[in-house]
Amino acid sequence: MKKIGLQWTALLAAIALVFGCAMQKPQVPEPVYQTPVLSAQMGSRSFGPKVDDFVVILDASESMSKAYKYEGYTKFSYEKTLIHRMNEAIPAMKMNAAMRSFGHGSCLPDKKTLLLSTHQPYSKAVIEKALQDVPCTGGTSPLACAIKGAGEDLEGATGRTAVLVFSDGLDMDNRPVTAAKALADEFGDRLCVYTVHIGQDPKGVQLLGEVASAASCGMAFTAEEIASGQGMADFVKTVFIAGESPAAPRVGDSDGDGVLDDMDQCPNTPRGVIVNRRGCPLDSDADGVYDSRDRCPDTPRRVKVDARGCPFDTDGDGVYDYMDVCPKTPKGAKANARGCWVIKNIHFDTGKATIKTAAYPALDEVIDVFRANPVLKAEIQGHTDNVGSAAMNQALSEKRAKAVFEYLVKCGTDPDRLSFAGYGYSQPISSNDTAEGRAMNRRVQLKPIY
User: Which backbone phi and psi does 30 adopt, to 5 degrees?
Assistant: First the structure.
């Protein structure tokens, strides 16, 4: 009996050992990490920032609360660790930065995306504080809202920009890709999008890869690729550091723009001109004129420009064609902000059509325009604000237009070249809800007749 008892005891011990090993979580040690000192690695080589502005997007959604591959880490805590390491590795350079998050648990406001740090000069301390201001996870994964928010954060930025997305890419449809494409359309070649995937799900890897590919510049990374000190150094160099100065061109980089010849689509770029990843000079406003020679670098999309990169002003009134409501203003005539020929500084007594003497110089300028344009004909148009009845304002606008007509004729302008009409308050050019708007609406305008 003793022998049988000993056998059962041994068997039970073996079973306990097997189950104990099965229940114990395998420990995967995190790679030994040492913060790279990139300024020392670059040595005597000259380097500067690759971007002028960047936004970091942090995933704080519910899926990030799951355990990660390293003992003691969730995907969320490891994501924050990577951003902390990146922040520590970035060398001192002049850039602007912002940070926002999406998702959020009960410890944070119930919003799809939160601006954690406003767009301001880059500071390690500011980014670190913003990172610590998100202590919990929860909710859905509205990455598209965060990408759109990043565009709003960068509003007014005119230099090279980067958006960095840290996420597992889970519980999302294709909207983040659409949002990234819209951002790329807005910022053109000066935008780069970088993504860092935290997790093991291949669908998340694919989605974040498509987000990064939405812009003409950018790259998709995994957490493992940037986990080590060298990996983080390479990541920071790729995203933030412009590299060697043009005075020391790379081997196989004939024009010294930082893009090797076999990838350079613009191989003769002048020295010192900033280029995109294809080696072509940046065209921030996508008007077809490179930034290095663009005199009007903020032209709206799809507006035609001249060789200097400036919108056309066909009638030379100082108002670009795409903004000009009255595109055929005669030479020498003074136009308002809408491009219309308005007699400025013309004054009438309240409710009357008698021209004050202070308006004579402005009227004399109109006479000079008719003299400089011998075939010019025009309609003198009277306009009012909406104070008073429609009938009263209609009559008043006609009387004031007629008063200007009589002045011009009296001073030698051929009456056959003039006509006049009143429009009351039917054609405002500003809001009648403010004193400033009403003052703009009380005007005498000349419409050339061709």
Answer: -70, 145
Question: Which residue ranges form the domains of the chain, and what is each CATH number?
Answer: 38-240 (3.40.50.410), 321-449 (3.30.1330.60)
Cα 229 from Cα 316, distance rounded (Å) = 59
Cα separation, 313 vs 319, whole angstroms? 6
DSSP H/E element including 191: strand 191-197
For 275, phi and psi rounded to 5 degrees?
-125, 165
**Cα–Cα distance measured from residue 174 to residue 172, given in angstroms and rounded to the nearest whole number:** 7
What number of residues does the chain have?
450
User: Which contiguous run of DSSP H or E holds residue 195?
Assistant: strand 191-197
Instruction: Kindly indicate the confidence band of residue 272, based on its pLDDT and cuts at 50, 70 and 90.
Output: low
What would the pLDDT profile of 366-401 be if each residue is shown by its tens digit?
A: 999 999 999 999 999 999 999 999 999 999 999 999
Q: Above 60 in pLDDT, residue 18?
A: no
When mean pLDDT is compared across 4-18, 25-39, 325-339, the lowest value belongs to 4-18
Half-sphere exposure of 439 (CA within 13 A, CB side): 7
C-alpha–C-alpha distance, residues 371 and 3, integer Å? 129
Tokens describing residue 27: 């420990």
Angle (deg, nearest 10), helices 390-410 and 360-372 = 60
Query: Do residues 78 and 122 lie in contact, with contact meaning Cβ atoms separated by under 8 Å?
Result: no
* Structure-token pair, residue 104: 């959020």
Q: How far apart are CA 191 and CA 51, in angstroms?
A: 9
State phi, psi for 235 to the nearest 5 degrees.
-65, -50
CA distance 318 to 157: 26
**Residue 29 burial (10 A CB sphere; 0-12, 13-18, 19+):** exposed
Determine contact, residues 311/305, Cβ cutoff 8 Å: yes
Strands 53-60 and 161-167: parallel
